[in-house]
Every structure is written in C-alpha cells, then in structure tokens.
Amino acid sequence: MPAKTVNDIVALCKRRGFIFTGSEIYGGLGGAYDYGPYGVELMKNIRDAWWNAMIYSRNDVEGLDAALISNRLLWKYSGHEAGFSDPLVECKKCGTRMRQDKMKDTSKCDNCGSTEITEPRAYQLMMGLSIGATSDGAINAYLRPETATTTYTNFKNVLDAKPHKLPFGIAQIGKAFRNEISPRGFVFRMREFEQAELQYFVRPDQDEQYHKMWMDTRLAWWINELGIPAEKLRFMPHEKLAHYAKAAVDIEYEFPDGFDEVEGIHNRQDFDLGSHTKSQNEFEIHANVLENKDSTTKLSYSDPQTGENFIPYVIETAMGVNRAMLAVMLEAYTEEDLGDGKSRTVLKLKPKLAPVKAAVIPLARNVPELLEIATNIENDLRKLAIGRIELENSGNIGKNYRRHDEIGTPVCITVDHQTMEDNTVTLRHRDSMAQERIAITDVPRRVLEIVNG
After folding, report:
1. pLDDT exceeds cutoff 70 at 189
2. Are 316 and 268 in contact (CB under 8 A)?
3. Contact, 363 vs 415, CB < 8 A?
4. Do residues 154 and 65 make contact, with C-beta atoms less than 8 angstroms apart?
5. For residue 200, is it within any domain?
6. pLDDT (tens digit per residue) in 329-359
7. Of 273, 321, 360, 408, which residue has the fewest beta carbons closer than 10 angstroms?
8. How would DSSP label each residue in 398-411?
9. Domain range for residue 418?
10. What secondary structure does DSSP assign to 89-126, as a single string?
11. What is the CATH number of the domain that holds 431?
C-alpha cells in the first residue's frame, strides 16, 4: 500500500537520512530542505534517468549547464521582471499573507476566518540580487527562477558549436529560485528547487506534432523509468494559457491529497527566441514580444537546404526533480503486515533508482573471517560502478534487513559461517524477502541482473 499521507514520507526521510529541514538547529527556514546521504543518491538517480532518456538515448539533444545568476536584461525581455508574480492578500486581523489563487475561500482568511482581507497586489517571485563591489543595494541581477531562459540565450552558442538540423533540443538540469509566499507540501513547493527542462526547437509548421510526441514520450518515461502506475498519472490541459503559450498540458500525479502537477509540456511558439533576438523586425514573429534593442545576437535558424532564415518554435518539457522524488517515494512506500504482530516498511523502488544498490552483511559482528570475506565482496561490487554499496557490521541481521527495506536496497548479501565452508552466501530480495544461496563468484553477476532488471 503506497503512503496514505505525505507525513509518512516526512518521517521516513528524517529517520533514514533522505531529507532534513534546512537550518534546523536554528529553527529552520520556510521552503528550504537539505538532502541527506540517501536523498542525494535518489535525486542523482532520478537526474541520471532523465539525462539518459533526454541525451544519451537520443542524437538530437545537447546538454547545457548555465549560470544561476544572470544579467537583469534576460529577465526583462523574457517577461519575468514585469509579469512573474502571484496575487498576494493579507488578513487585517491576524496578519497572515496568502496567495489569493490558493485560498480555500477568497472572502475569508485561511488562518483565522476573518473576512477583513486586503485587495490583492502583485508579489514578485524572482529573487533579486545586488552584486558588485560598488553596489549600492539596488537590484542589478536575479537568481534564475527557471532554467529555460538561459537555454534560449545560449541557442546560437550551442548551434554554432554543435550544428544540428531542426528539430533538435537543449537540455538542462539545475537549481532555480522563487520567492514563494507560502511554501507547502514538504518539498512539493519550495523557494530553492531543482528543474529538469528540455527546450526542443522545431519548424513553425511542425509544432503541434512535436508537442504531441513529447506528451507521449514524457508520460511513458514516468511509467517505465520511475515506476509510477499509469492510473496514477493524467494529462491536465491549462484552462488559461500563459502569454507565451500556444498550448500547455501538465502531467499530474495523484498525491495523497489529490492530483497535482509534476511536469509541464508547453508549446511556447516563437516567443522565447523572438523575445531575445536582435533585429526582430527582420523576422516574422508570431508571438507578442517586447521590443528588444539590447540583444547582440540573432537567435534564428538558417535552413541549409532552402536558405530560409526564421525563428524556430519551442516545445518545452519542464519537470520538478524534487516533486519527482516525492512522487517516487510516495508510490514506493509500502507497509506490510507480516503476521504475528510483526510488520515492515519497505520502499519498493525500481532497483536503478535505489540509493543503495546492495548491502553486504556479516551474520556476526567483528568476526575477522566473516568481515574479511564481506569486505572482499563489497570491493568486488564497488568495481561494477553501479552505485552505492554498503557493508553492515552491526551483527543484528534482522535490524539490518529492516533498515535496508526502508531505504529501498534491492538486495542484501549475507555472509555466515557456512560461507567459510563452501564459499556461498545468501541473497535476500527486498520485495519478496525470498532468499537464495549462491556462490561468492556469482554475486557480481546476480547483483547486476537485479539492478539492471
């Protein structure tokens, strides 16, 4: 049974070292979390699964890692500086500030129920910076609120360095920052978060077919690579389109409190490259863009066959990595009744996503002969370069099994006294708890089969 509430995951994350409250020893900071030893591994494995699907499995996408801080003009011409805001209201009685579009009832305070609510005002979501030795405190740069804009401004750089015919894409994974009024849902909505975004550049007359292609491709990835059941996912078209969009659809996951967005797939038409390009009047730009007199580069594409020079359309896929991790953990979390008053909690993660790929456990603590064999097995498994391998030397086999069930380790290898007699060990499988006896020499092959299965 998957987790019934997010609180199930919150408790597991703290107990087993997945996610901690940021600045916890000083009372924390709203919307800030630190990822512990197993959290960083799970996040890395989700990133790797995305990167492999977007770049290593394709020949039409290149990678990028752009700066977190960028020139203020990027955000002026992208429309963020003027329009990237949420409607903020404040309760006159208790002082609570709320996003109007997230209130349960816009006529009264979510906190105290008072109807004395201020009129909504725009609340800037970007985090401004004052940089430079002579800065007087005025905002002259921003922490990026998304990775997409720095991808568009690098369009020509990537195309010149690695020429492609249309369609082709640029992918980026990285941190983004938003001055959220009310972070919520554990790591669902934070002020510092991680995005995995693809910007796929297409001819203007092919935008609809590629929008559909990426909808199908990304949904299949959530099912096949992250292990989310198809019935827990759905497409939700945007009722109101953003100023840049021709079409927009979210992939939503059924969280314990209902469906919510985990990834967006947008047809952004030629808004982005058109907004940032030099000499806008030389191109037929379909989107409504701000006049740009500051750009130094034409962000256009020249067709090598026809000689046509135009601004490509963009199909964007934008996934929240933190939300993906939360969805994966919620879906994998299982409480099982073992009978006789016993139970266990297990994360039934896909083996490739598991923070620890295998644990080697000597049956008795500090027995030199057992520890030496276990250490040799651990070293052999490390040579496979499949991820984290752990050796447990506590001597309590039951507690070790339960700990690795909770962190999602797909297989444990137990070294016991029989091992010293016949060079065999016990493989214990996480999901079924079934055990098999195999030769030590077969351990690397079997672990590879399990992890890659």
Report:
1. yes
2. yes
3. yes
4. no
5. yes
6. 999 999 988 888 888 999 999 999 999 999 9
7. 321
8. HHHHHHHHHHT-SE
9. 354-452
10. EEBTTT--EEEGGG-S-TTS-TTT--S-BPPPEEEE-S
11. 3.40.50.800
